[in-house]
Amino acid sequence: MYFVRKRSKHLRSREAPKVFYNEQVASFCTLINLHHCWNDRPMTQTVPIRFHQIIFTVAILGLCWQGMMAVHELGHVIGAFATGGRVNRVVLHPAAISRTDVSPNPSPTIVVWAGPVAGSLLPLVMLAAFHVAKLSGQGRGLLQFFVGFCLLANGAYIGVGGFDGVGDAGEMLRHGTPMWAMLVFGISACGLGLWLWHQLGSLKHFLTYPETVRRPHAFFTAAALAAVIAAELLLSARS
Q1: Residues 183, 122, 181: CA angle, nearest 5 degrees
Q2: Within 10 A of 155 (CB to CB), how many other CB atoms are there?
């Protein structure tokens, strides 16, 4: 019995590496086959798929930019109403940087900070609502991308803009906001935005496999961007 047990242990120790080796070979062969399948596809099939991916990417970035500016200016409007200010004009035009004119403005510091703060927090609240409702799918992924975009845009706008003193950052400095506070906000917002983007997956995978973007999604996002731009051209002044 001792000899049988010892022999069985010896056989298992010799067979285990073979099993592990075979699994490695199978995984490697699968990757090689996928690589050849991708490289062997005709250009007539690859080019239209890549074109749909480009349309989708450009449209999503455009929608995120327009949406970020809208939420940012909404924050200024909320700050103005909360402090007794009067909103004279809100500029949301595709050919101009968004702006909110407030006069009289009894609390300019609160109003100017309300833009980037609300522009970062309101999208986060929307994402938290999706999480609480346990909603998933592509809609949640797109919303998470938008939230990360808003955090990065507002964080960079305040954190980097303080060195040039332009836009809201210049107003903050003129009304006594210390530079370190702007840097803390910028670094925190950008860090959280990058973390949210990282949770979405690999950018390399998205670029390598353009077929993940379907043609209806590409044209729908492009149509949505066109509708937003048309609405801004009709409803908002350029300056």
Answers
A1: 15
A2: 25
